[in-house]
């Protein structure tokens, strides 16, 4: 069974002491977009969105996203 892309935004924000409101005010992203990514409910992401998040969080796209196996119980 193929894996899936998991967004690690929730973990990265927690490590940096940020909440949705902080990210919203420090980027051009909407609360809805941030929430969708945090909850892994997004069907995709724009490159400019990824760039804003990586710039704010000082991370790479590879840190922002990871590949998970289907059935992975670690769903942070």
UniProtKB/TrEMBL annotation:
InterPro entries to which the protein is assigned, alphabetical: Cro/C1-type_HTH, Lambda_DNA-bd_dom_sf
Domain of life per record: Bacteria
SUPFAM superfamilies: lambda repressor-like DNA-binding domains
Coiled coil feature spans: none
Domain HTH cro/C1-type: residue ranges: 29-64
Alphabetized GO MF terms: DNA binding
PANTHER family, per database record: DNA-BINDING PROTEIN, DNA-BINDING PROTEIN-RELATED
Protein name in UniProt: Helix-turn-helix transcriptional regulator
């Amino acid at each position: 069974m193929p894996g899936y892309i998991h967004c690690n935004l929730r973990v990265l924000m927690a490590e940096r002491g940020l909440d949705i409101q902080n990210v919203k005010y420090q980027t051009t992203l909407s609360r809805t977009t941030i929430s969708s990514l945090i909850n892994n409910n997004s069907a995709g992401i724009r490159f400019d969105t990824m760039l804003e998040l990586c710039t704010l969080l000082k991370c790479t796209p590879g840190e922002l996203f990871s590949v998970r196996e289907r059935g992975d119980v670690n769903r942070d």
